[in-house]
Amino acid sequence: MNHEEFREKLSRHKDMVYRIAYTYLKNRTDAEDISQETFLKLYLREEPFRDAESEKAWLIRVTLNSCCNLKKSFWQSRRDEMPERLTSAENFTVEESRLYHAVFSLPEKYRVVIHLYYYEEYSVKEISEITGQNPSTIQTQLDRGRKRLKKILEKQGGFYYGEKHISEHDVSCQNVRIL
Amino acid sequence: MEKNTYQSMMSHVRMSESCEEEILRKAEEASVRPEITMKTKKHRSPVMIAAAACLCVAVAGTVTVSAVQDNEWAKGFFGVPEWVDESEERKEQREQAAAYAEKYISPINNFAASGWNAEKFEPVGAVCDGEHLYVAVRYTTPLEDGVATEYMWDIPGTFKVTCDGQSVSTVSGSSGSWRQDDGSAIIYMKHRLSEFIKGDSIDVSMDIVDSYNLGDYDNINDISEEKICSLSFSVDILQKSKVITYYTDEILKKEIQPLGVNACAWVDKVEVSTFNTVFSGESTTANRYDIGIDPVYIVMEDGTKIECIGNYSGSYGLKGEYRIIIEHPQPVDPEAVTAVIVGEHTIELD
ipTM score here? Predict the structure, then answer.
């Protein structure tokens, strides 16, 4: 693709890719490396995408695969990551700050699914298609992630679960309110 | 969960401008830079980097613009003959170096010299692959009373390189001279540029300083004054060259005595090009890690081991990341390199 086209795609998807990498890896440096890797692959890809949604799904898949491979490397597997403090964290509200620490204390598989579900607003079925995992696996990860999150937030206290659209797979997500 | 809260929380996580700029820069570089072949160690999953096709070897231009008719002079880039008889092995290596260098040698264009004895300088040849700049110029020794006078040459840090009007700094460099049978000297200069140059050519300017007259150095009153001569020229940049990148999970370990400290450095990446091998990674020690890479050998597919003695430089980051550049004593075909031996460790490349 030409440079102008690439620049436009980068502008459109950069934060999405970065957020996914950051959610997975929990640190800015690695997330930037993976983002660069992903976009370089996009730039060098010759085959055009069917549509914008395909392109987005491809980017997510490549990002996740790259993160997974990075984590598999011997050096990475020996590192014990704490969630990095965001430089923009001073702009967090109290709820955001609690949620940030709660989410980033979850195992990565739960974090990623929660992110794709709540931020990118994909359905369980769509997430399973993107990640190549079974829909029931995705559902299980989502359920467990939410349960753990609930426990963490309960300990912290004062977080509110709101109402959410319930899909046919999402029967476990009811109106839950925690005070 | 309150979706809005999650979304508003994650909205604070954004790609930095510097990261975005770096991506654009790399994309632009990828569009002009040689395609890179990536290989991984055996028994490992393929590393996630954009794949590319095989590389092409650059086609050289004419060899020289000087009176030198063959490429004998090119041997000087890769080690001048010892004052005592060279070993046959070393002679053969330099023959191979000259033959291989012929593929890369370009003419020196727009050559100009000014200052003292400027008319004695003439261009010989150069090669620039965008990262390395190798230049050779000949100096015809002036005669005094029919006798050639020897001079020592200093080429100080006034070696200036520009490309498209922008100056480029050099990371490292070396120079030397090789006396020819006719009494002239070919001066060799080798520099590694601080950034990859993407243009068609680079402009070079330098000052050469005459240190002293060896003809009668016992007489301190006979030391000649420093003379300054300035040279300028341009060199075409090879548009395609080979770099092969390997991703590894190797680790180099070393005991540091007498503290009994185990130091180790991860080798994450090995890049092999014609002129050097670079490896980079991280060190787990808190301070700068001296990998102690002597000796280093490049192992070729025919089993030949090329020893790289002392020709390396390194950079180290605050977080333990490092990058070590090992200069080859002769140019090699990167695809024919099968392993790198670093001290007691062998890093297989396949």
Answer: 0.79
